[in-house]
Design goal:
The chain is mainly beta. The protein has one domain: Ribosomal protein L33 (Rubrerythrin, domain 2, Single Sheet). It is built from no helices and four strands. It has a four-stranded antiparallel beta sheet, with no helix packed on it. It is elongated and about 30 Å long. The model has no long low-confidence stretch (mean pLDDT 88).
Length: 48
């Protein structure tokens, strides 16, 4: 079973998305996604 990582909005801090974790990655995952609470596209970061 693959582990999942939650993506947290950098503005409001809500956790909106879950993505599969990559064990080989050394960098923190950062993706621009739509935040329902902010109502716009914001940077979402992974919290391992």
């Amino acid at each position: 079973m693959k582990s999942k990582v939650a993506l947290e909005c950098s503005n409001c801090g809500s956790r909106n998305y879950n993505v599969p974790a990559n064990a080989n990655s050394k960098q923190r995952l950062e993706i621009k996604k739509f935040c329902n609470k902010c109502g716009k596209q914001t940077l979402h970061r992974a919290n391992p």
